[in-house]
Predict the structure of Phytanoyl-CoA 2-hydroxylase interacting protein-like a.
Amino acid sequence: MEVPGLAHNITSPLSPCEGMIKDLSLDAIQLRDGNKSQDGSISEMEELPVPQNIKISNITCDSFKICWDMEARTKERITHYFIDLNKKENKNSNKFKHKDVPTKLVAKAVPLPMTVRGHWFLSPRTEYTVAVQTASKQADGDYTVSEWSEIVEFCTADYSLVHLNQLLEKAEVIAGRMLPFSVFYRNQNKEYFDHARDVLDNRMLPSVKDNSGSHGSPISGKLEGIFFSCNTEFNTGKPPQDSPYGRLRFEVRADALFNPDTNLYFGDFYCMYTAYHYVILVLAPKGSTGDDFCKQRLPALDITNNRFLTCKQDEGAGLVFHHAQDVILEVIFTDPVNLASGSVAEISGHQLMSQSTVNAKKDPSCKACNISVGR
């Protein structure tokens, strides 16, 4: 059963997270200690049990189940549970949603475990603290409450396949028509390519993806790969001559990375407070470590028939490739790439640093690329 009530103006004077709660009042509800009356005198009512041994389970990106132990003899007196939920402060917290906003949940005393669900106060991949009180509603509308339980910490999960398929559907809406392309390319500085030649046996090696894009993306900080681009200019059919990542560009024939022996996955859809939208795709050689990772976490795409990136056999022309025109594709290839498979040359345009997506945060207010879970 889901928690039915959410009250941002309800607090207990005994809240264990009192230091984090700001500008909250008791106007909506009056609380009493279980063993004291409002005037400070000792009440004859037996003290309510404090929840013990709190357990958090079935954690998703926007829900969790909670249960605890209580003394059986006083259960019948409990009418409500108060759940004090707060985002744990740390330097890596999601700064774009619900900053410094504590949440007080008021639930009827339903059988445990109880499901707490709500994308408006739970973000994916975020650490929270939770504590619980038991409460008994009195005839006059006031509540008698127990002491607060111990504080328990937990972390919400990544987006599931259900959530990623919702993002996928949104991305398909704005992908636009398909344009032909023939090469994948990767821009970096001279030091990067020198290191690949001199230290890495002439190879570019996969590295862990940064935290750009959706906060709940299951590939951020986990999937290892090499970023490539494939977008072309509609008037020339060639890659643009500007790049935010470096003046040297490695180009490789598209069929070297993308062919019938490659699986294609949808990874993310986001924007950065601009009109441009980005789609992250993953190319993983079949049976590779990257392929195994993606099979469990990402929606698979048909390489011959999808709205973003296709590879088709054309009689007489071999493999032909197309990319979506109206989104910027960021393609992650999950295996090492030998520099000998392509060529490195300097671009003639500019290095536009302002267009970099390194660790870029997603705009949580964009209706085109957000879904109804934590951003």
